[in-house]
């Protein structure tokens, strides 16, 4: 009886391992505190670069941009 029980236990363990591999957890991957801090620093640096680039474009208007920004007004009497 013990021999049968051992064999069945071994087979059950193998089957459980196969099922566990098939059904992976939906839990997100763990990210350590140091990695999270590093990612935040990179994101802050990128956002700072983006804001610097954005202010450069805004502070240097071209003649075409000023012409587009200031449309001429048409009076109702001219129509």
UniProtKB/TrEMBL annotation:
Residues 1-79 are annotated as: Disordered. Residues 13-27 have a biased composition (Basic residues). Residues 56-67 have a biased composition (Low complexity). Residues 32-41 have a biased composition (Basic and acidic residues). Pfam families: DUF2986 (PF11661). InterPro entries: DUF2986 (IPR021677). This is DUF2986 domain-containing protein. It comes from Photobacterium sanctipauli.
């Amino acid at each position: 009886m013990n021999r049968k029980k051992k064999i069945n236990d071994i087979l059950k363990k193998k089957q459980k391992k196969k099922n566990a591999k098939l059904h992976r957890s939906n839990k997100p991957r763990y990210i350590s505190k140091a990695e999270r801090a590093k990612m935040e620093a990179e994101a802050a640096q990128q956002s700072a670069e983006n804001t610097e680039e954005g202010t450069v474009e805004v502070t240097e208007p071209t003649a075409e941009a000023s012409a587009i920004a200031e449309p001429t007004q048409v009076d109702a009497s001219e129509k």
